[in-house]
Amino acid sequence: MRISELAAATGVAVATLKYYLREGLLHAGEARGATQADYDATHVRRVRLIRALTGSVGLSLQQARAILDLVDEPGDDLYETLGSAVSALPPPTAEPDPSEPDPLPHARAAMERLGWRVHPTYAGMAQLDRALAAASDAGLPMTDERLDAYGRAMHDIAGFDLERLPGDDPAASVEYTVLGTALYEPVVLALRRLAHHEIAGRMLHPDAD
Amino acid sequence: MRISELAAATGVAVATLKYYLREGLLHAGEARGATQADYDATHVRRVRLIRALTGSVGLSLQQARAILDLVDEPGDDLYETLGSAVSALPPPTAEPDPSEPDPLPHARAAMERLGWRVHPTYAGMAQLDRALAAASDAGLPMTDERLDAYGRAMHDIAGFDLERLPGDDPAASVEYTVLGTALYEPVVLALRRLAHHEIAGRMLHPDAD
């Protein structure tokens, strides 16, 4: 397809597509004479990925580039690559202070409680630590029982997600992991609020039709 | 305690406490002479609530006031009050267009699939619809199987949360619902990322010690 058709297929303006091409975010089409090029399904998919990262996910083009680089060159260790890709997503977290003997005490205790083996410097640890500290400061600390219940539910979801990882295709695995992490997070939170609403209705309005 | 002690107990500056008092967000202390007042544990708790709403939760004072008003006057229908309080939390969602015959098609289909009975105009519906549409636009639509898995996990969490609702104390119920919704959301998302990390480690690095 021509660039105008790629624009129509993706809803992205031709000028923006040309910008992606110049910046090397989008691979060149196959040359058809001096001024035309031919684009295919790989271009459509790539443009959708760029749009998702810079749109719904809310990354700058520079931040998106870090993830696109990992899609393009996933390297030999898929586990490390997936961790790096997810760590490039919001929210930004400060690096833990290495001089601190126990820099993320809430998160570390939570992982011990759950028996999860994670890298102590994985970005999710700083994210969890901050979240647990905020709950505690507000007078609503996570109890062990709540941590068990939440941990079990999240482990169920994560198991479902990873069963569907296209592990024999590293580039597709990075794409799936990044988009699946970022785009399903708002789904998770909306479903939690709706589940509260649904159960509260049955508890507090048991006779409603 | 004196206002300086309330400041020390909550970590909030005296000038800020006086501002809360003037604005009516914080109830007056008991008068002790012409220029002094005595504060107690109810003031500490209220200041913590205001700080959580305007700090971690990220509300403006005006938005926090809407929630504080519901804590102060929960009204007769706790179910309605809890729904209004949660709807006052971020993210803001546009009202569905009432002239549209099916304004939130993704969310409606999801609730039908899950068999959840919810108000079709509850704010969580617009939130879910937008999240499902974004995932779909990015080429990663929620399948029925994924919706089932996520819905089951969120229903488990919500059941745990609502078993602990202090239902005989409406003000405490509003406070618990608002803070528990907002403050545990970042915990949920961090746990999901860590669960992915943990399972990916076992799948991709099975021999690591």
UniProtKB/TrEMBL annotation, chains A, B:
Source species, domain of life: Bacteria
Keyword terms: DNA-binding
Domain HTH merR-type, chain residue ranges per copy: 1-70
Region feature (Disordered): 86-105
GO molecular function term, any single one: DNA-binding transcription factor activity
Annotated PROSITE patterns: HTH_MERR_2
Gene3D superfamilies on file: 1.10.1660.10
Protein name: Transcriptional regulator
Organism: Agromyces rhizosphaerae
